Amino acid sequence: MASGFTRRARLMTGGALGVVMTLALAGGAQAQTTSQDEQATQVDEIVVTGIRRSIEASISAKARNTSIVEVISAEDIGKLPDVSIAESLARLPGVTMQRLDGRSQQISIRGLGPDFTTALLNGREMVTTGDNRGVEFDQFPSELMSSVIVYKTPDAALTGQGLAGTVDMKTVRPLDYGRRAIVANARYEWNDIGALNSGTTDHGSRYTLSYIDQFADDTIGIALGYAHMSSPYQSERFNAWGYPTYSDGNLLTGGVKPYVMSSELERDGYMGVLEWRPNDRFHSTIDAFYSEFKNTQVLRGIEFPLAWGGSSGACPGSLADCRPGPSLRPGYTVEDGMIVAGTWDNIKGVVRNDLNKRDSNITALGWNTEFVANDNWSFNLDLNYSKVERNDIILETNAGTGRNVAGALDTLGFELTGDGVTRFTSQLDYSDPNLIKITSPQGWGGDVIPGGQAGYMNTPSIEDEIKAVRFVTTRQLHQSPFSSIDFGVNYSEREKSFVNDQYYLAVPGGGDLAIPTQFLMDPTDLGYLGISKVISYDALGVINSGALAKVRNPNADVAAGNWEVSEKVTTTFIRANIDHNLFGKPLTGNVGVQAVYTDQSSNGFSASQLAPGVSQTLAVSGGVDYLEILPSANFIVEAGDDFFVRFAAARTLARPRMDDMRASRNYSYNPALAQSGDINRSPWSGGGGNPELRPFIADVADISIEKYFANRRGYVSLAAYYKNLESYVYNHNQIFDFTGYPIGVGNPEPVLREGLIGAPDNGDGGWIKGAEFAVSAPFDIFHPMLEGFGGQFSASWTDSEIQPDPTQAPTTLPGLSETVVNTTVYYEKYGFQARLSHRYRSDFLGEVAGFGNGRTLRSVAAESIIDAQIGYEFQSGPAEGLSILAQVNNLTDEPFKTFENGDERRTIDFQKYGRTFLVGVNYRF
User: Fold this and answer.
1) Is 63 helix (H, G, I), strand (E, B) or coil?
2) How wide is the angle at C-alpha 553 spanned by C-alphas 357 and 692, nearest 5°?
3) For 157-172, what is the mean pLDDT?
């Protein structure tokens, strides 16, 4: 077993223990009427609806917490401030999000990407629908959440603490809510860009019903909630293959793959809470959450191989035997080293009718029981279970004028716009079903399908399951600098598996397939690209009809894409809660330490490509166990009236990406090098995962100065932090023992059984540092005439440097924007509400879907997004309890753009989503 009890960890642990002596000498303890746990997690009961009440509740919770946190509170039952949790989180200081297909889905905290953030539901670690640990927040209906807490600093009792931060989503507790509530709301939404694909819609709806009540003299409470969403979203998507250097030394476009996308996200979420508190000593809560999530994307467009398009057949030769490669005519236009306009000859376009479909469901169950034995001792037992099942269809179909060499070629005029999008003029009618057939226009996939594939179908599936139990004992102290001590243990088992099913699509008997008329649809307009129309058809319908044959991909990389990862984690902890008077100033907080023992393992396959379409596999497994010691301390000094100085220090970890921990890998054996004794010329080579990966480790320090004013209706804060990354996971070549791997029949026994494989490994780290400024204020503090007006502003600055490989230059942290700014102004009075919000983030390295739907990191351009909302609540009369609202997201139609090599002219992705409008009503019975 490996131990993470390094010298720095010993020093930090010793420092935490040394605090005990310091506090004991500083003065006597003060009484405390509520436990530190209650102070850390209780959120103000929401009595009055509205923006201001939400802000006040969030500020109050932030002030009371013993960690450095940000809090979102619902304006009312079933009504978080935004249409998604991720959008609400992205308005918090130090938090930002990345749009995916126009939706806010994943977040970054303090410059670290989604894989470094842990998500909790009611304090319990959650499974994830993605391939790894990053939570996709659109799985959780915002309407069913009462509050969300973002922990920027951990404490020893915090379950599943992340290296970047921990996001804890809270559902309502009916006994704390304290009264009956029946709330219904409905929304209607549409997108102004329109339905871009045939057979899709640009209109959707949302509706929610919530019920809360108490019974048996308020000893039993129940909360039930249901939320439905059918949300369409559209995009015009330009994608460039890249920008090679032409023979004259100028850059030009290597190829393009533009689409229009129409999607519909359907989600049904269910929430239930049952509480029983017969007396002050016993409290038991059962809560359940279930979500069904379906996302269907229809993508239609055309792919043009340009500078990187090659010839095929017996070339040079006649057009009957040779398809010549694309040729750029002389007379093209060059601007600043880039060819921006001209004409291409010999273009063979690939018309694409694609579909992405995801079905997933999440189940989360929890049972928490608290027993207060006497005035000194209390006990808490928590049992929880969560599981996700996800099935995807990633379907690509190809059509064109003929198979490979056969078929008409096009002449394309082109011009690059200021956004980096290439517009074309074409000589062919790509919407003509007599001209365009399902086929393999470029002959791609000819090593498996003779003549080339007519498409590709990827149907991966994920299962993720967590079982956990937690037991905590609290001892109240009465003659000490500490008010109480918590000690306990949390044990969890997690298993995540990925099944990698992939298929080539082929026209039975070869040749071209005329599109069956029953699947033909109205042509798709690619006017933004300059192509008026392309042929459209129901791609999945064609597959399900049997018109195309599915041929399982036999290649080694597919077999090696299957994996299973298991983790058994035992976390023991002790936390001492401080309630003290230090040199005349109230001091609160906590010190503590976690001992985290992890036993991880993985099963998978090693696969080798023997010949085109022929591979062999070998079942493999691996794993490691290790212990990490994680001390932490949080100190809050009340230096003046509602003036707090907070300091926190901790050692934190983030476990590696789960696909990086897979045992699966590709390998190859070269018999020609069998007699080599040089590891750099070994006959063995390969690449894949590493089941012996250790976690990312960081030592962090935070300071925050906070001043609350106007009866805690406003605050101003300034924070700074530094994270010393002790280790960071990166990919590099490393020595691997291939003992037991087959060498093939008739091949010579090698001198070496070791070789180099490319795989993730733990390398050196680096640092992240940053500062955050935030202010939230009601404007009536400036003048009474401004009552009802208010604003929130935050700005974050982050810098980093990581160098896991000392021989390479420092790299950029994925997800880090150096500057993030959020601004909200609002008005709320006499039932009328209005809010305008703006968020900005500078460019960053983002994770997007690349070739084969794999993970690709690209530079994402800076973006500035504006949302607006107005509403009115009837506060008296027969309509009392009714409120109406109107909302628009992405008011300025901000595009999403990625680029390569630090040159924003070299656009890789350019996507426009349009504006989304919502109108709706809420009613409280």
Assistant:
1) helix
2) 85
3) 90
